[in-house]
Write a structure and sequence with these properties.
The complex is a heterodimer. Helices cover 13% and strands 40% of the residues of chain A. By secondary structure, chain A is mostly beta strands. In chain A, helix 2 runs parallel beside helix 3. By secondary structure, chain B is an alpha+beta fold. In chain B, the strands form two sheets. A three-stranded antiparallel sheet of chain B has the order 2-1-3, with no helix packed on it. A two-stranded antiparallel sheet of chain B has the order 4-5. The termini of chain B are far apart. The chains are: A mainly beta, B alpha+beta. Chains A and B meet through strand 5 and strand 8 of A and strand 2 of B. Strand 5 of chain A pairs antiparallel with strand 2 of chain B, so a sheet runs across the interface.
Chain lengths: 220, 91
């Protein structure tokens, strides 16, 4: 829309109406240089726009701007918090064969060996969910797609990693999915096997194997 | 975007990641140029890095796979015979 620009703003000419008492015709005499956008139905809510809003929102009888805005508000409220942005990121990694797993346990405290070299993934956002799928070559020379495994779930508290006196890192509290514990730091997830194992496959980290991942997150 | 941890792990492998989006490179990691071919031994490689970018990558040494465990002796036939024939004692 465009504002009216005139040389004599608010100037009006009052012309008496013949035969009438105290009755005048108002005529604008502001000498505009820019006429500006008129304030009328065509500029506020043309019929075509009203009809389109009715079709899009399912609200009938939209004839006023307030009704149009109200219909939009009703629809938008159904989306919840739209200030958040969802992120999806995919990628892959090749397993290193290093096994980060349970060394010893005392109550809820567990000592994990090779925590510093545990497999990890970094994202451009803080992930809420992380799925990993292994693709391995079978003995018959074709590739098998393993079952996707949910590795990380935000409903499980992220443990705190503390370096103990013996140099081993211990994790408290121990939380895990399918025996895999994890540490989240900023946008990086590192995981280990929360039990004893000698098989890197338990850690989704078989040497030379390609693993594909899908991460989902939401903006802060 | 491909990244690799600069320092090798105790077995000679490097932690690595290939991502669909550009990410902030973690400390201690470097970017692998898109046109750099990965050796067949990846992630067991030797790399040179300059200013956070891998400038060369050569094949490393992959560790020998761990030998398969000895198979358990098959005792089921012996056990089945013992049940059929009866057992008066156990040595």
């Amino acid at each position: 829309m465009q504002d009216r620009i005139s040389n004599h703003p608010n100037r009006w000419v009052l012309t008496p109406v013949a035969g009438e008492t105290n009755t005048y015709d108002f005529t604008r005499a502001d000498d505009p240089t820019v006429a500006g956008t008129p304030l009328n139905k065509a500029t506020f809510l043309p019929d075509a726009v009203a009809s389109a809003l009715e079709a899009a929102t399912g609200v009938s009888g939209i004839t006023l701007p307030a009704e149009a805005l109200n219909a939009l508000a009703t629809v938008l409220s159904g989306f919840g918090d739209i200030s958040k942005t969802a992120y999806v990121e995919t990628g892959s990694y090749v397993g290193t064969g290093i096994i980060s797993s349970l060394s010893s346990q005392s109550g809820d405290n567990v000592y994990i060996r090779n925590v510093n070299t545990a497999p990890s993934l970094t994202f451009s956002f803080k992930p809420l969910f992380l799925f990993i799928k292994a693709v391995t070559a079978s003995s018959k020379k074709y590739y098998q797609h393993g079952t996707s495994q949910l590795l990380f779930d935000p409903t499980i508290a992220s443990p705190e990693a503390i370096t103990g006196a013996n140099g081993l890192q211990w994790i408290y509290p121990l939380t895990n999915i399918g025996n895999r514990g994890f540490i989240v730091s900023e946008n990086t997830i590192k995981w280990f096997y929360a039990s004893s194992t000698s098989d890197a496959a338990d850690l989704l980290n078989t040497s030379g194997n390609t693993y594909y991942y899908l991460a989902i997150g939401v903006s802060e | 975007m491909r990244i690799i941890e600069i320092e090798a792990l105790e077995n000679g492998a490097h932690r690595n990641q290939s991502t669909s989006r550009d990410i902030a490179v973690p400390e201690g990691w470097a970017v692998i140029p898109d046109d750099m071919e990965l050796p067949a031994t990846f992630p067991f490689v030797d790399i040179a890095v300059e200013d956070g970018v891998v400038t060369s990558m050569t094949a490393g040494v992959m560790p020998e796979p761990a030998p398969a465990p000895e198979p358990e002796p098959d005792i089921w036939d012996e056990l089945a015979d013992a049940i059929r024939n009866g057992v008066n004692g156990v040595d």
